[in-house]
Amino acid sequence: xxxxxxxxxxxxxxxxxxxxxxxxxxxxxxxxxxIIGPNGHGKTTLLRTLSGxxxxxSGQIEFDGAPIPQSVEARARAxxxxxxxxxxxxxxMTVMENLAMGAYARPKGYDLQTGFAEVFDLFPRLxxxxxxxxxxxxxxxxxxxxxxxxMMAGGKLLMIDEPSLGLAPIVxxxxxxxxxxxxxxxxxxxxxxxxxxxxxxxxxxxxLMDGGKFEWTGDTEALRNSSDIVATYLGG
Length: 236
Ligand SMILES: Nc1ncnc2c1ncn2[C@@H]1O[C@H](COP(=O)(O)OP(=O)(O)OP(=O)(O)O)[C@@H](O)[C@H]1O
Prior knowledge:
236 residues; alpha/beta; binds adenosine-5'-triphosphate; ATP-binding
């Protein structure tokens, strides 16, 4: 089957400063892939360029067998869903209201209850807090709302920027367990994660970004056998 996402020679940056240099990769229609690598080397910029929040300078992106549409909204409607770093939730709104916002690109008549049920199945803790304002949730619960809001879009690829950011190790485990469970239903997920040891047992393919390029790509076994690569780029 054709790849879900195919990126060729993608370049992007800020102002006149280039960040991404000829990034090429592809993703299949299922499973968890991870972009790993040190901070400040372009992982977030890549996700933002894929979702259309940043303009691509050159290169091609194909999604679901067709050239990707231009606007952020059209990309979301095509099924490319971006869960940004830092959650970016509506703090004065409840859990359910935040989740409902994620379904904005769904066709008219979509029954929100179906989406809520999927999210609450994955994150039962959110079901208990469904009427609570997001401002009163813990950091881990907010992260769950952010991922749940992305799920509500019903996309074909869920791109999640650093789901572990700022969370305690035990909460990181809970979030990654949920992503594992979501992937087992056949979802395609692309995660940005600085620390490969956190994602090693969740993802099945890894792209190591350094200096705005992929310096190494491999599966879980290759990653485990590449301690030299990890030490060189990630310091341990
Ligand atoms: N809005 C912006 N304006 C100008 N430069 C930016 C902007 N956002 C990011 N950059 C620069 O682009 C480069 C790549 O940043 P990016 O956030 O993509 O890296 P990253 O690998 O995701 O790191 P982190 O995990 O810390 O976000 C960095 O040099 C950063 O300073």
